[in-house]
Each structure stands twice: as C-alpha cells, then as structure tokens.
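Incident review: delayed structure delivery

Summary: a single-chain prediction request sat in the queue longer than the usual turnaround. Root cause was a stuck worker, restarted by the on-call engineer. No data loss occurred. The affected request and its eventual output are reproduced below so the record is complete for anyone auditing the incident later.

Affected input:
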Amino acid sequence: MPPPLTGEAAGDLERRLAETVETVAPYSRRIYLRDGVWTREGGDPGGDFRLRWLLQLVGDLAPKPISELRVLDLGCEEGVFGVEFARHGAEVVAVDGREANLNHTRFLAEAVGVTDRFRAIRGDVRRLNPDELGRFDVVLCLGLLYHLDKSDLLPFARLLRSLSGWGTVIQTKIALRPRQRFEAEGRVYTGHSYLEPLGLHGTTAAENEAHRKASLTNPESFWLTRPSLVNLLIDAGFTSVVEHVGPYTQTAADDWASMLAASGEAAEVYSVPGASQYPPPRWDESRGRMGHMNPISTRRGWVKYRLRRTRLWGRLRRLRSR
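Output delivered after worker restart:
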C-alpha cells in the first residue's frame, strides 16, 4: 500500500477526485483509494464480490503468484479490475476505446500508487496487435464479449487465444434460446441479436461516445448461447473451458456465463494413438446445456417416475397386458 498522505497532498487527492468525477462522470463502483478517500459514497460495504472472486480464481489456479503475473484487462472501463491486480503486484496493461473511461482508470492507478506497473492505452480491442503488446499470463474479458457483432466473435476469440499464455477469464451475457444462427468458417453458432445504443434511431456518434458501457462502432451485437460460446472458444484454439459456479457472484444468473478458457497444449492420449488428430466433439445446440439427460430429469419422465410408485401404475400395466 502507498504511504499515507499528509497536509496539502491529502486534500489534493480529494480535489483531483472531484475534478475527475465532474469532468467525466461519477464512478460506478465504490473503491477505496487511500487515507479515508473512496471513489464514491454509499454502496455495499462488502464491495463488488467479483473482485474477490476474480482474485481468488486466478490466485487458486494460475501457475505462479499474482505478484508475478502479467495481466491484460480488455474493455477496462474504470480500470477497477486491472488496478486491483496491480495493487497485488502484477504488471497490468488496460485497454479501452473511450477516453472518458481511461481518465477514470489513470486517476485510479495514480491515486493508489501503482503507475509503475500499470499502463492504460486507448484502442479497439478487436484491432490489437499481439506482436506489439506481447503475451500475458492472464487476459480479462469481463462484460465485453456481448458487445461484439457476429462477424467479430470468432476473430476476437482467436485474438484472445494469441494474447493469453495461461488463460482468459470471461464474463458475458448469453442467449437462453437459439433464436438466430450464423456461420463462420463452416461452423454454426446460435443465439440472438441485441440492439446497441448506436443502433437506436437518432443516436449520434457523440452520444454513443458518452455511453460508457456500449459498443464502439457496431449498431448490433450478438449474444451466443452457452453451447455456442463453449464451441467458439474451443474453435479459437483454447484447450479447456471451465465454468465458474462458486462462490456466488452478482452475475450468477441464467443469462450470464463466467468461464476460464485455458491456453494449453493439446493432450496426447497414449492409450489411443492418434486420437489428438481428431477435433473435439461440439456441443449440440438441440440438446441444450445438459446433452444426454436421464429421462427422470424431464417433466414427462418425472411424472412417469412418480406414477410408477402408485397402485394406479400396476393397474395400468395389468390392463395393457390383457
């Protein structure tokens, strides 16, 4: 933690926070800066649990301590997640397409004293150059994927794979029904389209720029179903996709998915030589998330199971055998 501020320096922090908020907008999250100064008043005293979940997940599973990681925060918005990793010693690069968001991000990094290992740059996450940025142990793709249109989804997933040395953490909204479908490089993905602010009649480029949680240039985005999201990540070259189920977070809802996509090497099965030459099986959209279900898991199967425990079932069987 940075040393405490005294005298004019302490008052200067509050003044610069007020100027940042007045110039841009209030911070959406209540984050502790230093010396009793928070980004905003009120809010849940326990904070946004996603911060704790994210740190715990990476701390539990990453191949080295957080303080030794190189982290890329895509669509960083206010920079809360990336700055938190920097506070724990990680080297962080944060990217966002809106300068207003980056103003919040840079002030946050400066206020908590992590500018020596935190860099915020403006850019379109779909157009990043892995050769310029290098590879990162962890890539954070939080609340971003569902702002991309269908034509960008597979190329962007491949970009994530090329940037991440260990894995990518993804949080995204998903479609609950396969209402629409599209094809990319011979592979079919399903979900539904979503109208972004830029797609609303009369929305100007300036108004879209001021909308800090929206797409940059596309008027529509495409929300994938859970099976299609998994298929997309595997098609992009990730070797495993693990879904987070606990602890509970504020995004633990049916239309949210929290996943870790691992950037490993294809496993060679010695017991079945040549098995790795065959592509992994894909999720079947028609069977939904569960795939092959036990009949008792369906409504019809449950009714049948309950009936079989009654006398009526025995009478019906005797009648059918006559």
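Verification: The chain has ten helices and twelve strands.
Action items: add queue-age alerting; document worker restart procedure.
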